[in-house]
Structure formats: C-alpha cells, structure tokens
Specification:
The chain has eleven helices and 14 strands. It has helices at 2-23, 44-63, 83-96, 108-121, 154-168, 183-198, 217-226, 237-249, 288-300, 313-332, 337-345; strands at residues 30-37, 71-78, 101-104, 124-127, 147-149, 173-179, 202-209, 230-232, 256-258, 276-279, 348-351, 354-357, 368-374, 377-384. Helix 3 (83-96) runs parallel beside helix 4, helix 5 crosses helix 6 and helix 10 crosses helix 11 (337-345). The N and C termini lie far apart (76 Å). The chain binds phenylalanine (PHE). Residues 46, 106-108, 129-132, 184, 260-261, 263, 313-314 line the site of phenylalanine (PHE).
C-alpha cells in the first residue's frame, strides 16, 4: 500500500514537473504588442506614420532575437482617432488577441477611453503622441498606473506657443479657435490662453466649432473684425487645411499658430503658408541619432515614386514608444504588465525625440520645437526646453 502510494506520488511529481517545463515561461515563444492607430477616419496620415514607426522598432528587436528570447508579434488595429472605435479596438486586442501591451492611440480623445479599459484590465499602455494632461491622470488627479506616454503634455505645449507668440512674434492680441468636443484642441486652447494672458497678452476673441463643421465663414468674419496679431488654431491638419484656406479667401493676414496636430504630409502648405506650430521633433535636428533614424526609416519606407519617406513626429514618437516598451519588458525580465509598468516608470531611454525619463505622472520631460510653414516647406525655427 505504502509502495503504491509512493508510485502514484512519484508519477504526479514527474507529471507536474513536465507540465511546468512545457507550460512555463521557458516555452513561451511569442509576445504580442498591439498598435492602436487611426488608419482610417479624419486623420489617416497619423495612423500610417504611427504604425510604420512602431513596426520598425519591433523589426529591429526581432532581428536581434526579440525580447527575453521571445519573438515580438505586432497586432495592428484601426482606432480612428475617436472614442467608440478606440474602445472597440482596445477590447478586441485585449479580449480576443490576448495582448498585454498597447502602443496608442495618437489622439487624446481616443487614448483617454483606452486608458480606462487598460487600467481596469491590467494591460500596459504607452501613447506615443497623446498630449492632453488627462491621458495619464484620473478625474481626481491620481496617476493611472498602467498608462504612460512618450511625449510632452499640452500645458507645456500651449505655454511654448504663447511665449513664442508674445516674444518672437511680438503679438499682443490673439484670437483662439478650437473644437469644443475634442479633448486635445480644448486643452491646448486653454493652456495657450492662460499663458498668453499671464504674459501680458490679450485674447480678443474665442470661438468654437465642431468636428463636423466645414464652413468657417461666420467665425472667420469675427476674426477679421477683431484684427488680432495672431490666430491660435490648435487642431489636426484636416481642420487646419479648411480654416486656413477659408481665412486666406477672407483676406485675413494675421499668422496662424497651432500645435503638433498640424504635423502631416497632407497639411495644405499653401493655405497654411506663414503659419507656425509647436511640435516634438524636427528632421533638421543635427544630432547623430536623428540623422541615422532618417536613414533607417527612408531605407524601409518609400513613397509612390520610390523616394525615401521622411519620418514625421508621429512615426518618430511611435518608434520611441515601441522601444521604451520593449526595453521595459527586457528590464522587467518577465512578460507581466504589472512588473513591466514598474520597470517603465524607472527607465531612462535615449530616444530619437530626446532622452526620456518619466515624472511621477508618467510624462517625459522633453523640449518642444517650433516650425514654420514657408514656401511649401516646413522649416525649423527654434527649440524650447521645459
Ligand atoms: N497631440 C495630439 C493629441 O493629443 C496628437 C498628435 C501628436 C497629432 C503629434 C499630431 C502629431 O490628440
């Protein structure tokens, strides 16, 4: 009897050892990372750049053997720069594809609802480019443990824009136009207004519109009447194209000033000519890391004529965000988002967009650049440190 029990016991021990060996970490061959980006909808250049930048980083890690001995498998989903499709995409990659890590979204109004899902499901999120302060903070100001970003935030970006308007452009009177229903444009407009008035400037008018509007003549008539020195328009390129074209038709000559949302190959450089915008990076930056990034990206991605594509801020920050995430997985030493988030909080990473360390709110402290749309090109004007 005792002997038989011993045999049964030994069989169980061997079986459980075998199970551990087969089902344990050593046997895991793949790790999935989702990329949630607006591939369709109003701002598709944001999505394509973001996907391509992140995929390039993943390819580079895989070429060196992956991470922790696992091949990295990207799962790309179209989240359309809007809350509902973003929520659907996040639930799909988490529940069906079983990802533990999300790179995305681009747009703050999409990243905020995604952040609620990931923090409920213990999935780690890093947004490459969502700048609204509430992406990483709850309504009562607590930091969301599973949400990080690779970019600066709008209170900084709006202040940089306001100081540039006051000091460099010598503007005293500003008119502010923004989309009331969009977290990004509303937050950036507020930050600009606060900094512009604190610096001695005057807001001579403020008008809102919705994301569906295409005719801006009524509010542009008010702009013409108020005769501002500058018009602040912190929206995405699709809206900027319409508003600046209609402003030129109306004979408005005050320069427009905007934010990172202007950054697109599809920005209408004729309509927006003479305008300025704050952004995360410039390809005219001479740091060697930027120059080698331009080369790598251009070798991999070509336009319809076979010419190398110059990576924009979206592609660059998606590349940085993917590297930050994978480096954090490596540092954590385990495929477990709850451990990887702690590794990320303590990481220091040399990114293309600058050296990144996170503050207590999971925001990197980084410089901004100011660019000008001039004669069909986007040219570097200056950099502003925090
Ligand atoms: N910062 C924008 C947002 O939060 C997104 C964006 C970043 C767009 C960079 C263009 C370039 O919605």
């Amino acid at each position: 009897m005792i002997k038989r029990l011993f045999v049964v016991f030994s069989v169980l021990v061997v079986a459980s050892l075998l199970l551990t060996a087969c089902g344990g970490a050593a046997a895991q061959k793949e790790i999935k990372i989702a990329i949630l980006a607006p591939l369709s909808g109003a701002v598709p250049t944001f999505g394509v750049s973001t996907r391509d930048g992140a995929l390039l980083a993943i390819d580079e890690w895989n070429a060196k053997g992956g991470v922790l001995g696992m091949k990295i498998v990207p799962v790309v989903a179209d989240s359309q720069c809007a809350a509902d499709p973003a929520v659907n995409a996040a639930n799909k990659v988490i529940d069906q594809d079983k990802v533990g890590y999300i790179i995305g979204e681009v747009c703050s109004s999409a990243s905020i609802p995604i952040s609620e899902i990931v923090n409920a499901k213990n999935v780690l999120q890093i947004s490459p480019t969502s700048t609204n302060a509430n992406v990483t903070l709850t309504a009562d100001g607590a930091v969301k443990p599973y949400t990080f970003r690779a970019c600066f935030i709008d209170p900084f970006q709006g202040t940089v824009g306001a100081k540039f308007a006051l000091t460099d452009l010598q503007a005293k009177k500003a008119f502010v136009l923004y989309d009331q229903g969009n977290d990004y444009t509303r937050g950036l407009a507020e930050a600009f207004e606060a900094a512009f008035t604190a610096g001695g400037g005057e807001i001579v008018g403020k008008e809102t519109y919705t994301g569906q509007d295409t005719d801006f003549s009524a509010i542009l008539a008010k702009v013409a009447e108020a005769k501002p020195d500058i018009v602040y328009l912190p929206d995405y390129y699709n809206v900027v194209n319409l508003v600046t074209a209609q402003a030129k038709e109306k004979g408005i000559t005050a320069p427009f000033l905007g934010g990172d949302g202007w950054d697109s190959a599809d920005l209408d450089r004729t309509a927006a000519d003479g305008g300025y915008f704050t952004n995360h990076y410039s390809e005219q930056d001479t740091r060697p890391i930027v120059q080698s990034w331009l080369k790598t990206y251009g070798e991999k991605y070509k336009d319809a004529d076979g010419k190398p594509i110059v990576p924009d801020a979206l592609a660059t920050l998606a590349y940085d965000a993917a590297n930050l995430l994978i480096a954090s997985i490596e540092k954590a030493g385990v495929d477990d988002p709850s451990k990887v988030k702690d590794a990320m909080a303590a990481l220091k990473w040399e990114g293309v967009s600058g050296t990144i360390t996170f503050d207590a709110n999971h925001n990197p402290i980084k410089s901004a650049v100011i660019l000008q749309v001039k004669d069909g090109k986007v040219v570097y004007v200056t950099s502003v440190a925090p």
